[in-house]
Amino acid sequence: MVDIISRSDWNARPPVSRQGTTWDARTEFIVHYSAGPTGQTPRQIQDHHMDGNGWADIGYNYLVDVEGNAYEGRGWLTVGAHAVGHNTSGIGVCFIGSDGDASDAAKTTIAALYNEANRLGGKTLTRRGHRDVNPTSCPGDDLHSWLHNGMPVD
Predict the structure, then answer these.
(1) Are 81 and 18 a contacting pair, CB within 8 Å?
(2) Is the dihedral angle over the CA atoms 17, 12, 111, 127 positive or is it negative?
(3) Spatial CB neighbours of 22, under 8 Å, sequence gap ≥ 6
(4) Phi-psi region of 35 (alpha: psi -120 to 50; beta: other; left: phi over 0)
(5) CA 68, 74, 75, 77 torsion: positive or negative?
(6) Maximum Cα–Cα distance across the chain
(7) pTM to 2 decimal places
(8) CA atoms of 83 and 90, how far apart (whole Å)
(9) Residue 9 lies in a domain
(10) Which helix (H) or strand (E) holds 30?
(11) Is residue 103 part of a domain?
């Protein structure tokens, strides 16, 4: 079980709209990075997604900071806006930071979210980096390598 900081606890704005999905439709776990400073907050990312991109809400289902805190984005069964063509099938988890910034604590939490998604879905989701499904450098070389080496944590 992962301790997840709720939307109300990080002062999330209400979504403009929401689209639900089912565990049957979920087949992937897609890791991202924010490509910004580790001091970014989920609310700053949400503001950029909603005000800058015109999205209905923060794009990710969950976010993880360098301290290993997990934040609820859209949640387990709300369609995200994180990977074109993979928003219904994929649970999008964003590390808040840039390539090489992901701490052991952050990686441990991302792995715990993956394990929780598998438990809740009753199946093993395919692990992917954003670059595996869209033309981007996200989630950076460090997280991409870690992800494809089995997400080892100490």
Answers:
(1) no
(2) positive
(3) 77
(4) left
(5) negative
(6) 40
(7) 0.97
(8) 8
(9) no
(10) strand 28-33
(11) yes
6 belongs to a structural domain: no
For residue 60, the model assigns a pLDDT of 98
β-bridge mates for residue 72, sequence order: 62
With 90 as the cut, is the pLDDT of residue 153 above it?
A: no
Angle at 6 between CA 143 and CA 94, to 5 degrees: 15
Whether residue 154 is predicted with pLDDT greater than 90 in this model: the reply is no
Beta strands (DSSP E) in 56-133 are 62-64, 70-72, 90-95, 126-129
Domain CATH number, residue 116? 3.40.80.10
- Provide the domain count of the chain: 1
The verdict on residue 102 lying in a domain is yes
Task: Fill in the amino acid letter for 139.
Answer: P
Q: In whole angstroms, give the CA distance from residue 131 to residue 136.
A: 5
Element (H, E) at 115: helix 104-121
Domain that holds residue 50: 23-148
